[in-house]
Amino acid sequence: MTQHLTSHWDFERPLHASDHHACIIQVNSQEGQHLVEITGIKTQQSKYAIYYALFYILIVFLCLTLVCLPSGENNSCCSCENGYAWPSAVCSDLITCPSVSLALDLPCSYMMEMPFYGPYCEPQTEEPIVMNMSVRLDRGFVDDLRNSSSEFYKKYKADLEKAFNASYRCLPGFVSATVTGFRMLLFVFSDQTNFTVSPVDIFEGDTVRLICEINSTSENVTWYHFDQIISPSFHYSMERKFSRGTSRSILKIVNVTMKDSGSYRCTFTMSKHLTTWIYKATKIIAVSPLYITPNLNDINVTCNSPEMQTNSPLLSCCIDRHLPSLTGDWKVNGAINITGVPSFSENCTEYKLKIDESLCPPEKSGTVTTYTCKLQTGHGARRSQNINVTYLRTANVTISSSTNSSVSEGHPFSLMCESDVSNYDSISWKIQSGNNTKTVDCGTCIKNSKFPATSVLTVKTATQDWNGTYICTFSQKHLESSANVTLKVISLPLKSNILIDPITASIQCKVQQTLECCISANTTEDYTVTFVVQQNEFQVEQQLKAYCKFINHIEQEVKSEDITLHLILAQEVSCSTSFGIGKEGATLIKPCRGLNISDGFIRGNVIYKCSNKSWKIARNDCLSESINNLMTSAESLVKSPEAKANLPNYLAELKEKTRKEQNNISHSPANLGAIVTILDMVSSIPADAEEVTIQVSFILSLTYSYQKPTSSLLLDSVENFTRHLQPVNNTIPPVSANSLQLQGRVVTENNYTDYNKNFSSTENLTVNVFIGESEIQTLTQNSTIVSVMYSKLAHILPWNEPECVNGLLITTTVSSNRSQKFNINMTFTKKDSSLKMAQCVFWNFTLNKGGGGWDTRGCIATEVEDYVICSCNHLTPFSILMSPDKSSQVIFEDYITYIGLVISILSLVVCIIIESLVWKYVTNNTTSYMRHVCILNIATSLLIADIWFIVTASINDQNQQMSRGICFVATFFIHLFYLCVFFWMLSLGLILFYRLIFILHNTSKTTQKAVAFCLGYGCPFVIAVITMAVTLPRNNYTRRDVCWLNWKDSKALLAFVIPALIIVAINLFITAVVIIKILRPTIGDRSNRQEKNSLFQIGKSVAILTPLLGLTWGFGLATVIKNSHRAFHILFAMFNALQGLFILVFGSLWDKKIQEALLKRNSMSKWSSQQTKILEGFSPIHREFLWPIDSCIPPCIEA
User: Fold this and answer.
1) Mean pLDDT for all residues in the chain
2) Which are the contacts of 152, defined by CB distance < 8 A and separation ≥ 6?
3) What's the short name of a Pfam family annotated to this entry (predicted)?
């Protein structure tokens, strides 16, 4: 049986000096003799902590198989063989054999008495047990002992292992001893340091002092915070003090924070005589925030309240514990400087306010004064707390009326409420009538202003709902200031509620005619009713106007609608019944009367026509009973002080009744018109964007069959609804019902992102509305943006054939009042992809005398496959108009234009070639040179303009989408070079005028050429640039369908027409001067034959110049006229398309000098001879200068 014993010596355990014992062993080594002390370390706590610089020894104990040798009388020296060991239970009782024993060379030999009865060695079956030990070497530590590969380390290790193995070899169970390492000897004292902290209660901001003191002298002090060494800084500072036998270190922490909490350790280190002493101590500090608790947070104080002046508020700030060194202070900051009396008690500071009404004027009511209490500990921690006091003042409110104490029904009145306190939060109006109190909530009838503080209640039509005592209340925080006035509404029928019978009728002279004026009113008012008949003296036929007038007791009156009476003769009477009389074809209009109506009549009228001596109904415009009641309720609603609150209930009723009357409404124009009128009336009432929209969408579905002339009113009504929608919980709930979808957003302080909404219809048509962030940021806070999509409403709005609405209708409204431009982008899906020429249009309610119409101003259309992108700079109802593709419908004018352009371009090329060939032959003098310079530039300018025009025309004819940028560039150059043609013709005319009139005056060629080029290219360029700069920003520079100057919107075409007409007029004047000059006889230079030839040439000149200069543009102006005759278009296209041919024939080929030059180059003498005979009739001057000053207008471009 083998038992293993384990013993462990821990080198870091404290050992009392008197308790440790050691076995001193002589160790011989090459370095000299050293004492090795084997120390047993006890576990009890001691005053001194001894850390040894030790090496480790590995000792193995085993008991071996029994082998005995005689050793004296009755004794034997026994030991165990290999693989066996003494039983562990008896190892401690064995006696070692003496050194002189025969068994000296045997390991673990012990004396056994003979005879031997045990114990016996047992087989060793387990691994030896390793035990760690440490011993102290009485010498200084050498760094080489840290390096296990150094020679010094190896020598020490070998000598110590040899000494231990030799000394312990006979110990029971010992196997071997191994040195594992060396370390330095330290003495650590943890209870010899005096560690104090000041202050005991530490708050954020305090200056904390940590003091460590030992009864020894040590200059090496280190401070630790969570085992991190603290270095001196602005936050940490260290101070050391030494005295006889003591050392002190002070760590000061300035403005301590919560992060400075935790464990702090100070360490004093002292080394002497190969030994190091360490004194250390640890403290944990806790930093607490200095919490201040005010007795009040934010309070409201009424300055002119007697109670508040006698019992002023007490402000106080306290902390949660008592600090002897705590101090407090108060600071006042605000426009109202009301101070108080400070005091201090234990852990609180108090401030008693002294309220003074004179320090709180009305204009400063609502001002916030901040009272700051500051508490400071004696060690630097300080905290402050603000208490906000809002000083209010009871306002002096007055109320006045535009009338006396009474007003009649149907008449307007206004009330003004004024307050001396302008900084109010809200104003409310209430009407108290008996025990009933109503809050006035009528939308736009109340206008409030801040400076001065006023509120004006304006009532356009007084009803009995406005009767009572009006209470106007200015609210500021919790304080309310009011004034009241009593207003009595006197009964008087409304004009619309007075029934007249008849409305239009015929009467005979001297025959009595019954006229009726009826009202329905629940009143005790005694009206004075009079009838007034008026006669129009300027009527050929006798016609009378009559009306009735109701006057109440306060002398206010109301007039009925006019009754029209036609005077007829007795012999003219054809129809005569109880309804009335009339001649054949006459009209009789009677009011509608219903037997089931409580008041006996309903709205509308019946038109009778006299036919075959009897009255027959021509048209019945009477409303149904339910629609009549709805109309009456709507009129009462919009005139009610509680219009906004009652609107949802009314719309629910309107929806329910229109559903029941759907068939009657859809087949009755009068009922449909009444529904539209009702929507128009109630659309001005603000409503929550929720159920209201759904109800309106259903009502709209009933009106889609309504007649187009009044559909504009329907659209305007719905747009008014969206403009007055009120957010629900600061949002616009989305609505999708029937043919209407609504989405929107409220602009808040943190929500200035892009506005991007998508809509889709049941027909898979879509529209996207996008407003950029830059535009959103221009809106005021709490503004609403609401977009409504209509899938059917656009189709009942009128348009001009062949254009049609090819997408959805979208309206976007903003609640903020905006006068400047507002950029919005919309992307529409085409309903019919075969339609072309997309226009982005909006519904302009002001067109057609208020009837409305589609307008394109302020919008740019861009087609991308099946979509049309509209970029507009305003907010209105938008859609797209498109036309059928006319590419295959090439009209006769187009053929003329294209054929003429080809001829013109070829002619101009030939003209330029001819001029280049004969240039040196025909420019031998200044006049001829300038003439041909003008001709060459005219031909070049017209050629460039024609090329630009034919390129853009071919792109359009091939149905290719041309970008707006390319179209702008093409229009600019076409405009520029056509103007150049005109101005070069003007230059030519001026040269002709100059040479004929100023014969004796001569100007250099360079000067003439400079003036001609400035006039020919400079003036056109200036005009073209100004035209583009003025019209392009407004998106009306070009036309929608062709790349040419706009006429309909901006009249940009005038930038071409006016210069052209002026030049035509100037050239006509020059022509007249030339003719007069030629006809004016001079002495001896002209015969009769010459005069005849001159007259002939004048006739030819007029025949050439007049069509080219006058008729061409005259025909062009005729095409501007709406519905002009087609002949003007054909003539205009013909004359303009052949401009190049005219220049070739009359500018080059008809010039004799050019002919002669060509003959010289080609040796065509015969041809030259014939042409010379033809032109013999021209005078030399005429042959030199005669050439038609042509005009040029874009071929086949209608104005």
Assistant:
1) 76
2) 142, 144, 145
3) 7tm_2
